[in-house]
Automatic annotation (TrEMBL), chains A, B:
<keyword id="KW-0597">Phosphoprotein</keyword>
<dbReference type="InterPro" id="IPR003680">
    <property type="entry name" value="Flavodoxin_fold"/>
</dbReference>
<feature type="domain" description="Flavodoxin-like fold">
    <location>
        <begin position="5"/>
        <end position="203"/>
    </location>
</feature>
<comment type="subunit">
    <text>Homodimer.</text>
</comment>
<keyword id="KW-0963">Cytoplasm</keyword>
<dbReference type="Pfam" id="PF02525">
    <property type="entry name" value="Flavodoxin_2"/>
</dbReference>
<dbReference type="GO" id="GO:0046872">
    <property type="term" value="F:metal ion binding"/>
</dbReference>
<protein>
    <recommendedName>
        <fullName>Ribosyldihydronicotinamide dehydrogenase [quinone]</fullName>
        <ecNumber>1.10.5.1</ecNumber>
    </recommendedName>
</protein>
<keyword id="KW-0285">Flavoprotein</keyword>
<keyword id="KW-0479">Metal-binding</keyword>
<dbReference type="GO" id="GO:0005829">
    <property type="term" value="C:cytosol"/>
</dbReference>
<dbReference type="InterPro" id="IPR029039">
    <property type="entry name" value="Flavoprotein-like_sf"/>
</dbReference>
<dbReference type="GO" id="GO:0001512">
    <property type="term" value="F:dihydronicotinamide riboside quinone reductase activity"/>
</dbReference>
<dbReference type="InterPro" id="IPR051545">
    <property type="entry name" value="NAD(P)H_dehydrogenase_qn"/>
</dbReference>
<keyword id="KW-0560">Oxidoreductase</keyword>
<keyword id="KW-0274">FAD</keyword>
<dbReference type="GO" id="GO:0003955">
    <property type="term" value="F:NAD(P)H dehydrogenase (quinone) activity"/>
</dbReference>
Length: 221, 221
């Protein structure tokens, strides 16, 4: 089976990040979800062995219990290990339907389980992944004008709320400004080169950046 | 392999909808994505036979071309047939990370391809699925107070923007008020029964409802 990721330009942006950060002396680990054929479906198979309550299966409860017992499936353990060791998580993807593609949403659904990423009162600023930074880097199909307050797509920040606030902030992860390449497939070769150069340039001073103030005001002001 | 859907209460809500709508004389078709082991990953495998451009794989372009040639994979053709025949699409799911679970996001990513659900200037009110209604019915893990303007989760409508506006409205599908069961697992058995009864009750007059005004004002007022 031969699987290619949906958008070629995301490959270039990934490559740039790996090269630039490696050059800086960072240790970079890539989870290429398509290449890994990463499973996006949250099912009973994520728990090895017996269930906590096999009468009424509840994914949240079962993965939490399995995490504590060390009984999560191997692919999840592997991804959690990468997250645990990381200072910065960069999510690189093409925007699909105002959101991340299902394969990446599945990574969020399955990897960030209770006990690992958050716990009872350990959410938002108290989340379990407080020592980490995140950055959503993505390409869109349409122009920046569309994703504005006056555009039919609305402010691009509306799209970022569930990802940045609902997932990363929820787990305590700090969020750097998103990096958005608007409609790279509709622009000139020169403009595309500029986009790639801008990403390289930003990465050079990334570690000096301050996280955004992840409050409703940032998104809906 | 035995796969169960993540939340039991969504099963009850689905069952109620099927029973009530069938009783009304509607012909009801269910796509139980977990039971179908629905594939959420958007890959080259969604195109049967040769690619339009095998040098630089672009999922959007390839599925659009494959749709026109009648070369989409069988599972997608099957789902598109169901959508084509439907007057109303009800999406029943547990909210995962401020969004639908990956398996349902994958349904959106793979089924609603260009040519079928929208086309060049045929988007939003001009979308290709204008004759249809949709309804997002979901359960949450936390209470209604959390999902309010003052709550840490923000207004629940912020969460609805990418789904209702970014997907359904984009394809021309009209949107009925969402149906939300807040934290069914944290409430009393009696309150749960009330929730189920409220859903049954709403379904009785569903066809008389007017779609919401799917504009930024509805979401961010």
């Amino acid at each position: 089976m031969h699987i290619k990721s949906p958008s070629p330009s995301n490959g270039s942006l990934l490559k740039i990040a790996v090269e630039e950060l490696t050059k800086q002396g960072c240790s970079v680990t890539v989870s290429d979800l398509y290449a890994m054929q990463f499973e996006p479906r949250a099912t009973r198979n994520d728990i090895v062995g017996h269930l906590h309550n096999s009468e009424a299966f509840n994914y949240g409860v079962e993965t939490w219990e399995a995490y504590k017992r060390g009984c999560l499936s191997e692919d999840l353990v592997e991804e959690q290990k990468k997250v645990r060791e990381a200072d910065l998580l960069i999510f690189q993807f093409p925007l699909f339907w105002f959101n991340m593609p299902a394969i990446l949403k599945g990574w969020m659904d399955r990897v960030l389980v209770q006990g690992f990423a958050y716990d009872f009162s350990k959410i938002y600023d108290g989340g379990l992944l407080q020592d980490k930074l995140s950055l959503f880097s993505f390409t869109t199909g349409v122009s920046q004008e569309i994703y504005s307050k006056e555009g039919i797509g609305g402010d691009i920040r509306y799209v970022l709320w569930p990802m940045q606030h609902g997932i990363m902030h929820f787990c305590g992860v700090k969020v750097l400004e998103p990096h958005i390449c608007y409609a790279p497939e509709n622009v000139s070769e020169e403009k595309r080169k500029e986009m790639l150069a801008a990403w390289t340039q930003r990465l050079k001073t990334l570690w000096k950046e301050e996280p955004i103030n992840c409050s409703p005001e940032w998104y809906f002001k």
